[in-house]
């Protein structure tokens, strides 16, 4: 299993590559009056494939984190907001850029992204207090068969195993308006379109949930990348088409037979009545 880990500590602006150490603690905090600053880290290497980025911020102002190729980092204007164009789903674009965080105040965020091409990258960070960023590139060979997940805010779930076939993915996010989840394989490739809730806040109820059906082409290891406000839950269930069709089929047969029997009974009754009337007329004559 190949794993690269990088810990980047705000204020020190250091990049540490280590397999044994996940990250280092930041220095002492700053007061709330500290002005927002833009930091650009030194370039560091990433392999192509999945990367998981964990970010924290202890300030009160804006916290913005962008991951971009080193060549883009050299040309990035500092300070001020930076606009990027890029495709998080991969491709041959070596200038890919990823907007990983855009929050205000304290934050504890994790995101999963697909690195399209191995090379050197940098973080561009806007913050007004202590911050940390840790990057991992795990390559799992096994995972539990988890089907229920819960958390809060922008989060990456743990890895889990899925068998091939149709899966029903249901998510709840009570009384919140930001909700988007993406199913990724262990290499960071998106599986199907992202699940987005566009329900108007006024129409949302606490028990509301959204769901979609995803076709899993092959058995494998997956994870969810969630962007949400507040608490959320996810449930994954198998969709058994054969069971559904057999359940629906037999349930219709008795109904049809019953209707035929009722109609046949009415026809027999009608025939009997006609015959009786015919006999009565013959007797009367």
CATH class (first level) name of the largest domain:
Mainly Beta
The overall pLDDT average reads 75
Helix content: 10-25%
Number of helices: 2
Q: What do we call the CATH topology of the largest domain?
A: Jelly Rolls
User: In one word, what is the shape?
Assistant: elongated
Instruction: Catalogue the unreliable spans.
Output: 1-6, 9-33, 73-94, 242-249
Give the helices and strands as they follow along the chain: EEEEEEHEEEEEEEEEEEEEH
Strand order of the largest sheet: 2-1-10-5-8
Largest sheet: 5 strands, antiparallel
Task: Give the name of the CATH architecture of the largest domain.
Answer: Sandwich
Strand segment tally: 19
Rg value: 30 Å
Helix/strand class: alpha+beta
- Content of β-strand: 35-45%
